[in-house]
Each structure stands twice: as structure tokens, then as C-alpha cells.
Amino acid sequence: MEENKLKIDIGCGKNKKEGYIGIDIDPESNADVFASALNLPFDDNSVDEVHSRHMVEHLNPDEAEKFFNEIYRVLKIGGEADLKIDCDWSKGRLLKKDLAHKHRYSSKEIKNFVKKFSKFNVKKIFYLSDHTIRNKISVRLIK
């Protein structure tokens, strides 16, 4: 049954998650499907799993709200989403890190976007990578 699951990696860039269909707007990415995260090319209630890493910070708040609405739209009842959002240590540092970054989200802002999901867990996480402490938001959603 596992092989029949529809699993998508939104904003996959060049690091598409194995076993997932990569979705990205960038033609230089390793995506399988080139499409906007704000208008996913999937039917309502058709996706089992959503994976996304370091994409939400590339959206302004109105776009982020649309993005979470799209995830809700395409997920099946009981479907799950796992996201990681870069929030770095300050807004200035985050925006300088990548000129395509548009907004530094707080956990509270993300919680406001995901209230319609049957279950959600939004929390700050810290971990060591390349001898640097990273500051991210982990988001787990179930429709």
C-alpha cells in the first residue's frame, strides 16, 4: 500500500526527498513538476504526504496563507505534512542570507495559518549543523 501513496516535496530545489514527487517553480531545480506552491497541480483530497523544507520564508504573509490553504486543499483526510521553516536569529540576518527570503515568521504566525487542520504541532527547534546552532520552526500537520 505504501507505494500507492501520493507524496510531494514542495519547493524541493535541488534536494528532492527520495520517494516524493518534487514540485518547484525554478526550472534549475530537480523538480518532477514545475508549478507554484500557491497553485498545486493536484486534485482536492488527493495527496497523502507533503514535505517542504526552507520554502515558507520565501513567501510574504499573504502568500504563506495561500500556501497553507493549498496544502489543506490537496491533502486527504488523515494526510500529513512535515515542514521546516528557517527563522534564523534575526530578521536582518535571515533576509541577508538569501535575497529571495521575504519574511521571518514566528511560531505564532504559523499557528494562525494552520488552525483549520485537525491536528497541528508548531514549535521552535534548535540543532547543531556545521558547528553552527540553527534556529528553525518545525511544523507537523494532519488534515
The number of E-state strands comes to 7
Distance between the termini: 20 Å
Uncertain stretches of 5 or more adjacent residues? none
What percentage of the residues does DSSP assign to strands (E)? Answer: 35-45%
Order of helices and strands: EEEEHEHHEE
Count of alpha and pi helical runs: 3
Q: If you average the pLDDT, what whole number results? A: 94
Largest sheet: 7 strands, mixed
- The CATH architecture can be given as 3-Layer(aba) Sandwich
CATH topology: the name is: Rossmann fold
- Supply the helix-strand structural class: alpha/beta
CATH superfamily: Vaccinia Virus protein VP39
| Domain module tally | 1
The strands making up the biggest β-sheet line up spatially as 3-2-1-4-5-7-6
Verbal overview:
With 143 residues, this protein is of the alpha/beta class. The mean pLDDT is 94. It has a single domain (2-142), classed as Vaccinia Virus protein VP39 (Rossmann fold, 3-Layer(aba) Sandwich). The longest helix has 14 residues, at 61-74. It contains three helices and seven strands. The protein has a seven-stranded mixed β-sheet with strand order 3-2-1-4-5-7-6. The chain has helices spanning 61-74, 91-97, 107-113; strands at residues 7-10, 21-24, 33-34, 47-53, 75-86, 119-129, 132-142.
